[in-house]
Each structure stands twice: as C-alpha cells, then as structure tokens.
Design a protein that fits this description.
Blueprint (H helix, E strand, L loop, with lengths): L2 E5 L5 H8 L4 E4 L13 E3 L9 H12 L1 E6 L5 H9 L11 H8 L1 H10 L7 E2 L10 E5 L9 E3 L2 H10 L4 E5 L5 E8 L5 E8 L2 E3 L2 E6 L4 H14 L3 E10 L3 E8 L7 H6 L6 H9 L16 E3 L29
Parallel strand pairs: 1-2, 1-4, 2-3
Antiparallel strand pairs: 5-8, 6-7, 6-8, 9-10, 9-13, 11-12, 12-15, 13-14
Bound molecules: adenosine-5'-diphosphate and magnesium ion.
C-alpha cells in the first residue's frame, strides 16, 4: 500500500482518521498543536507554505514514506501544489492545473470561469460597477470560513460594507432559497467519479454542521459538470443555491474536501468512500466513474472533540468519555 500525505490537517480529525483506517497517513502541519495530526500514522512538521523549502520538504516526505497521493485539506497551499505538480516535482498531488487553482481561489475569477463554461453563477460585479438588482451579498474575493460576508439591501448599504471590509470584495446577487453542497471526487484525468449532494441545515463559521444527503439529479449533474469543466483532480465541493427566481446558482467552488467531510462517507456504497478511492488511486489503481451511486437520506450532526497531550505533546489516551483515539498501527 502506498501512503497518503495530507497537508494543512488543522482540526480536521475526521478526515485524517478516515484515511488512517485504509492506509498509512502522513500528516503535516506547521502547528504542533493542530489536533488532526494525532489521528495520523506519521505526524510531521513542515516549513510554512511561503517558504521555498516547502515543496522540497514534501518531496522528501514522499520519498521517505512512499507516498502515492497528496491531498491538501485547506485552500492555502493548493496553488503551490498545483505549480509543483505541473512542474513534475509533486506528481502525486491531487490538485487542478495552476490556472484553475488560481482562479477558483479568487471568487470573482471563479464567477467568470463558471460563465466561460456556461455554468450558472449569480450576477456578480466588482465595486465601481452598479449591480443590476439588490439585495446583494458583499463578500471577500479571497474569503473563506464565511468571514466578512454581509447582505446589503441597497446601494448605500453596499457602499458602506465595501468601505468597511478590509480586503478586496465583490457584490453578488443575494440568493433567495435553500443552499446545497455537492461533494465530488475526480480521478487524475479529471473524470468525475461521484458527486454527492447534501442540504445545509446549519452552518457555523463556514462549516456545515448539520445536513442530509439527497439524491437530487439536477445537483448531481451540476457537480459533475463543474468538476469536469475545470479538470479537477481529487476532491472538490461545489456550493449552490436554488433561488426562487434564478434557479440554481453556484456561489463557491473549493477544490478540496468541503466542511462536511462525513456526509459523502456515510452515503458511499461499501468500499467506495472517498478516502478508500483516493487510497486506491494512490496505489495506481483505476477507479471507474459511478456518479449518482450512493445512498441518500443519511444525516450528519457534528460536535467538537479534544485530546489531552502530555508534556511532550503525546496523546495520553485519557478523556472525559471514551475517545476516538489514534488509529491502531497497521
Ligand atoms: N450570493 C449569495 N447569496 C446568499 N448567501 C450567500 C451568497 N454567497 C454566499 N452566501 C452565504 O455565505 C456563506 C459563505 O460564502 P461562500 O461564498 O461559500 O464563501 P466561503 O465559504 O469561502 O467563506 C455561504 O455558505 C452562504 O450561506
Ligand atoms: Mg463556502
């Protein structure tokens, strides 16, 4: 079995742990207190992403642990990995081409990209151009985690938020209707393997904490069309609203696991959870597309967990009730 390298593991214990049930997982995060790394087989610190030594450090980890796939868990290093992949330095990286990585990280560019591919995106303008209608959402172009997002009812309110928010923003039609996420997985050739939609019943800080997997054919098709148009490799999450007037509009595309990782794991047919399929891809196996094959109706409700660490920052295995704990060594 080849190993899987996860970067920027942060708090995403569920993801690291799910991978560790199927293969050797190398977790890297510059923060020794990033909790999710404690679910990994190998926990390691790497230079900061901006450091020229970042990619060489990942190359060294790939060599040492026989890594077959690299999966970034945050937006922060996708462009660096995309460049390194395109330049042949990190062929294992499951990331899109650099141009797509750059343009999906910029929400205004992503809007233009969707339009270029004939995919539905709500009317969106940059400050200085008058929107065709209000209300709008004033949202940061490089936003994440629902930071600095405000609804504006008219031009006066929009002008206030444009001035108030301390980063570049855009003005996007406020969508009126339910919001959905579609968790997708693609192979290295950009073929969509599956697209699993879910409702967003409750979100906090940009993370979906309650939701239900649904078999909505229109959303499944939308997810597949987006990831195939963009040539995504590995996981991606497409967010969309179904506006009462405009119909479907895509508001966010993240070429990484979304905030509600467990949903597509619960819904997957046996052997076909995304971590299992990525472990298979890491081994060089071909996975056949099976878009729409999953079990709808699974609901997730999420909560916080924690680990007690000793003086050397090793998990003590002690907790308030029996903890999930690190996986048994393979
Ligand atoms: N055009 C929009 N209309 C209504 N709500 C929106 C719109 N864009 C974003 N939102 C709300 O703000 C949240 C965060 O916005 P999003 O574009 O997903 O950015 P990010 O997740 O990167 O912070 C969304 O989940 C959604 O609830
Ligand atoms: Mg989002």
């Amino acid at each position: 079995m080849k190993a899987v390298l996860l970067t920027g593991t942060g708090k995403r214990y569920d993801i690291v742990s799910a991978f560790a049930q199927h293969t050797t997982v190398v977790a890297c995060d510059p923060n020794p207190l990033a909790p999710a790394q404690y679910a990994a087989t190998v926990r390691t610190s790497v230079p900061m992403i901006e450091d020229p030594q970042y990619v060489p450090a990942l190359q060294e980890l790939c060599e040492r642990h026989d890594v077959g796939a690299i999966v970034p868990l945050t937006d922060l290093d996708i462009d660096v990995l995309a460049e390194a992949r395109a330049g042949g330095r990190l062929p294992q990286a499951l990331v899109p081409d650099p141009d797509i990585a750059r343009r999906t990280y910029d929400k205004h560019e992503c809007h233009l990209l969707l339009q270029e591919h004939g995919l539905p995106s709500p009317p969106t303008v940059l400050p200085g151009t008058e929107p065709d209608a209000y209300p709008v959402m004033v949202k940061p172009i490089h936003g994440s985690g629902a930071r600095n997002i405000f609804a504006a009812a008219d031009a006066r309110e929009a002008a206030f938020f444009v001035d108030y928010i301390d980063e570049p923003v855009m003005l996007q039609r406020l969508m009126d209707g339910p919001e959905f996420s579609i968790d997708c997985l693609s192979d290295r050739d950009g073929r969509c393997l599956n697209a699993i939609p879910r409702t967003m019943l409750e979100s906090r800080g940009g993370e979906s904490i309650k939701g239900t997997v649904i078999a909505d054919a229109e959303l499944i098709d939308l997810g597949r069309r987006v990831v195939e148009a963009f040539g995504v490799r590995g996981p991606a999450t497409v967010q969309a609203f179904r506006d009462r007037e405009l119909g479907l509009g895509i508001t966010d595309v993240n070429t990484r696991f979304g905030g509600a990782f467990p949903a597509p794991v619960y819904a997957a047919r046996p052997g076909r959870s995304y971590p299992e399929l990525i472990a298979a891809m890491a081994n060089g196996e071909t996975v056949e597309p099976h878009v729409g094959e999953f079990d709808a109706g699974r609901t997730f409700t999420r909560y916080f967990w924690q680990l007690e660490l000793d003086e050397e920052l090793r998990p003590t295995g002690r907790d308030i009730v029996s903890p999930p704990g690190p996986p048994a060594p393979r």
